[in-house]
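User: Predict structure, ligand beta-D-glucopyranose.
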Amino acid sequence: MRTIGVWLAVLSFLAHGHGLCMGGSSSGGSDQEGPGTKEKAAPDRIKVWQPAQEDLRMQERAAGGAIVPQPAVRVQDLRCEYKTDPMGIDVLRPRLSWRIEASGRAVTQSAYQVRAAGGPNDLANEEGLLWDSGKVSSEQSIHVEYGGPDLRSRQVVSWQVRVWVGSQDAKRTRLGDPDNHGNASPWSRPASWAMGLLSPSDWKAQWIEPILKEDPKVSNPCPMLRKAFMLKGPVRSARAYVTCHGLYEIQINGQRVGDQVFTPGWTAYDKRLQYQSYDVTGLVRAGDNAVGATLGDGWFRGRLMGGPGRNLYGNTLALLAQIEVTYEDATCDVIVTDATWKAATGPILASDIYDGETYDARLETQGWTQPGFDDSGWSGVKVAGYSKDVLVAPVGPPVRCIEEIRPIKILKTPAGQTVVDMGQNMVGWIRVKVKGPAGAEVVLQHVEVLDKTGNVYVANLRTAKQTDRYTLKGSDGPEVFEPHFTFHGFRYVAVQAWPGEPSLDDLTGVVIHSDITPTGTFECSNPMLNQLQHNIQWGQKGNFLDVPTDCPQRNERLGWTGDAQVFARTACFNADVAGFYTKWLADLAADQKANGAVPHVIPDVLSRGQATGGASAGWADAAVVVPWTVYLCYGDRRILEREYPSMKAWVDYMAGRAGERGLWTQDYTYGDWLAFATNRSDYPGATTDKDLICQAYFARSTDLVQRTAAVLGKTEDARRYADLLKRIKAVFQREFVTSNGRLVSNTQTAYALALAFDLLPDSQRPAAAKRLAQDVDRFKHITTGFLGTPVICQVLSDYGYLDQAYMLLNRKDYPSWLYPITRGATTIWERWDGIKPDGSFQDEGMNSFNHYAYGAIGQWLYAVVAGIELDPQQPAYRHVLVQPQPGGGLSSAVASLDSMYGRIRSAWQIKDGRMQIDVAIPPNTTAAVTLPHVQEGTVTEGGQPLSKSEGVTSSTQKGEAVVVRIGSGSYRFGYPWSEK
Ligand code: BGC
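Assistant: Predicted complex:
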């Protein structure tokens, strides 16, 4: 049976081609945002952002296309610090993770062996091993620390692993391990990592600044810096290490180095500045060479909301670069930035993140990054003494151009403007292909929506111009342009100038974001919910641009802590964001105030240089909630170790402010931001007392710090914070809860937070949950803002009000998650009514159409509708809680998650009076599957009674549900289903 299944998978793979990403339509409708004609996205125009297909997981292709049978157990997906073969890391004890592939069920790792060497050949020959762990009896297959000698700068390490597996299932063991149990896998294919520059003294390069006349009040032409150099012989290997103040793009011999954009990324620059490491062996050659870098203003000195408006981190751009060459004869050379470099400006006349780029192709300088270019007319550079102590290697994924979108339509607005509709609110830019005479112009303004008359709407961009200008040089063939140091948030492109008329083929949408690997899928029988999932994922893509931002379009785009905090759990379902958050949390800790207060945005551009600032409840708590979430989802204990001082400092800050009274009310707080509001005289809206919110989050963070202390074995701290938590809860109850269990704020958010954060005594919880459900019944809609929204459905379903939760989810009228979809939304909106039911817009001062915060419902789709949840006692989904809760008129739902251990899948379907639940969990994990509404005796697995099912270790009736414990593998449960 199994073999046939595998072959069918192979055939389907062959039929669908070899691409990693599956082509396909965006699910659900993608009607035009704003009033106007309704237009569906072309089916194959947008790639589905989803994990790689696993059709061939158990096979390997030989050169001739034949399938090579694989061993029953093997080790795959070797990762070092979450990355595949990372280049230039500075983690001194990197953590290694792998996934086990195994046929059969209930497979668990009983031992592993890792070996590491200077190269794959040494591994194969077992020569000069750097480290051999020996056979270690352990189930650990993620985050195994490298245990060899200390690593040096530039060191390249190849490593591989093999495992021994056993069975969790007694039945299986009795059967005598017929195939894979108790045996060693073969050695995995080698993987590698390369160390970066670990000490400031490794940098022989000097910081250089171009000597150019600039006006610090505006965006100046982008400096170009170059140097020609000679290499004395054939090259064995070459590395480039690069960073800058501003943004850089670097070329060697006319070829771009790497495919990353927005380098060196955005960090708390004065404390942490990233450098990138590149393998440039293929770009250099014996003899004459040249290197050239273009610098852009970026976050460093471009426009940024807050502070003086621009030049926030400095007035001048600077470059630091070093190319290290090893010749075939093992001798070395190093080419560095120094006083001998030359500088000039070229075609990029202005480039600003908010405003866009101005490029005059007539000013291009052919061959300036090639040898032989005459730079005698160029100015010089000056050496600057900036510190190299702040340099760090990236831990997160780089920003890249991830996909391309073709526009769906060109329209003429009533105002007579030509507008191109991309069919998707996206983040990135347009690649233009254009023909025309020298001096002709292309001017494109990027906007998110059309207004109710069908004209472009720019007011919500505030002062961001989002406009690219390209002046043609006038060549024979078409000219191709894309900007370098700006990005836009947009669905529509207003063509303000173009020689002639553009056609659909002349514009391509280039989507950029941090290259986070997609890990999650969710789909169900309601197409509108599928569109919601699509919108959540696009909200994440558009706002994961090196830092987690609030929005990508207006003059803001900042790392708002509250938004990041509420969305973190959903983000971890959709993609592998461990490295992304690890990087951002390092900036959070770096920018945290000495008194423990956490700024509102990270990197901190709002209270930079001030001793105080930030400290808003629900925002500052990102310092605690995000590391805890990364720990839960990825089993990352090290992030807790590293962030512990920052987490503690935040809680200690609140405790200090709360003082003897134990009530924290003293700081400005945003409250339940953007909660439901009305113009009704008798009901202004669902405003939750800010003091209540402060105390609730004070408790939440204290609770998580107490748990963190326990995980880290800091018993004394754990006890201290547990005591503090008791006091905070007592004060919460004293101040905000009546003796009958009523909260002083009779809002959904108040009840949802009190229950989600466990702030009420046991005796009062059912009544509080009932009040919450009654409020939902009374209004028939959600009234929560940023803080209540992520928890309300979870609390309702936890307390037995699943119908109310589904009602909120399924509602299509304002306010609801689906209302924006009825208005054609392709991303999550900042406000429940960004476009009001009458077609007018909300307040232009704050009306983003790409804001992920309300997308926090995503976690409920994965964890409750489809049923993939983690067990906090065994993080990283080592033990999976599969507990789908069907409802809301759905007849099916399916979710998958590529966890650290491998793919988890939960799919349920109600058909012909039967429930079928398919569950798959990867080797080295276990699961408790909670089958809803069933009597134990009626359940089958694979058509057999549970007792006969291999891999099922127990089953227990629990109320109306049956809990089945399973080992790894794929299972199909079935039983009769009648609607409640
Ligand atoms: C941002 C939010 C942020 C808020 C703070 C807004 O301008 O866009 O998402 O959390 O300010 O209240």
